[in-house]
Amino acid sequence: MNLFKKLTFWVLLAIVAGVIVGHFFPETGVDMQPLGKYFIELVKLFINPIIFTTIVIGICGMDDLKQVGKIGGKAILYFEIVTTIALAIGILVGYIVQPGVSINTGEIDYESIQKFKSSTSISWAKFFQENITIQVLLFSIFIGIILGYIPQKKIVIDKINFISKYLFKALHYIMKLSPIGAFGGMAYTIGKYGISTLLPLGKLMLSVYITMFLFVVLILGGILLIYRINIFKLLSYLKDELLIVLGTSSSEAALPSLMNKLENLGCSRPVVGLVVPTGYSFNLDGTSIYLSMAIIFLAQVFKVDLTTEQIFTIIGVLMITSKGAAGVSGSGFVILASTLSAVKVIPIEGLALLLGVDRFMSEARAITNFIGNSVATIFISNSENLFDRSKMCKAFEK
């Protein structure tokens, strides 16, 4: 049957199997962690080489190098606007649904949050030191511009094209292991944290998932409608990658494959090379929704009535900290801790309430971030008249 030849089927089956093993055999599930962890690490080996080759080839193929700066500037502006909308939506839904009302604070494990209390500031220097992707991005742009002025650039570009071709070919075989990675990631998550941990904060988790779904359909779908592109067709086209992100809780696991698919969809190579890696650090729609809802949730738990000024302060702080913590270990709680410290009205100890469900909401964050970067790339490609609709039609028909 053709069904058994589809990667989607095997990844979905692996996720279901991971849930079953993690729930009924939790110790075995926890032992499956290396399967998910090492699959992600294996894919990460391809990320920076693919970013380098894609950007260098793309920039050298552009007639006007000024367009590189234009695309980069437009991408940053887009990221700021959309993530600010995401932050505002998270706060709005938090007040409408009120997931933190009637939560018992007597069971907070205050000791579990001590390590985050000591990390309540975001260092931009640390961000650039630890975020290798941004370093490779900047280096690739520099090399691409330099090569653009060399008369013999075609010889160099042909060699880089050759390397790029075999990088994607090797990646294609690596992605066949994705069901194993998805099984390991899901089995570990369920085995380690247990489905029972969802019940006390089920309202918050359900609110986050529904809000992110509506954000994808209404906001990101609306952005694509500007250029007459159906969001559901895009999601169907990216279904394999979305399931891998769901199983591993990591959008990085599908980053190289996403870049390849967006090119095949009709996006210009320079736009893909510039927007996708930058977006992984600066365009975190899902993370923005979660962070703003989490803060409103904690304010409701501790019965803190936030003023309009404090709400705008929260949005302002999150606009900065959500970017500066990208690539830093434990970034979600570091961002929340730094924001609570800046506002100074919500007890930082309340973060301990989120420890049990944070892992289960990471899938929603990663998937929304992934879709957000896909939409950003398509939008900017279209706005720069660097999108091939004929390729998109062929890709959607497959």
Write the layout of secondary structure elements.
Blueprint lengths: L6 H18 L1 H6 L1 H28 L5 H32 L16 H4 L6 H7 L1 H17 L4 H22 L3 H16 L8 H24 L5 H7 L1 H10 L6 H11 L3 H14 L2 H17 L6 H17 L6 H13 L11 H29 L5 H9 L1
Helix pairs in contact: 1-9, 1-12, 3-7, 3-8, 3-9, 3-14, 4-10, 4-14, 4-15, 4-16, 7-14, 9-12, 10-15, 10-18, 12-18, 13-14, 14-18, 15-16, 15-17, 15-18, 16-17
Condensed summary:
The protein is mainly α and 398 residues long.
Identify the CATH architecture.
Orthogonal Bundle
Rounded Rg = 21 Å
> Can you give the mean pLDDT?
82
- Give the helix/strand class: mainly alpha
CATH homologous superfamily placement:
Sodium:dicarboxylate symporter
CATH fold assignment: Proton glutamate symport protein
Instruction: Give the amount of beta strand, in percent.
Output: under 5%
Tally of structural domains: 1
Total strands: 0
Indicate the percent of residues in helices: over 70%
**Measured distance between first and last alpha carbons:** 18 Å
The description of the largest β-sheet is: none
Structural description of this entry:
The protein has 398 residues and is mostly helical. It has one domain (2-397): Proton glutamate symport protein. Helix content is 76%, strand content 0%. Helix 4 (66-97) packs parallel to helix 15. The chain is globular, with a radius of gyration of 21 Å. It starts with 6 loop residues before the first helix and ends with a helix. Mean pLDDT is 82; it is low at 112-120.
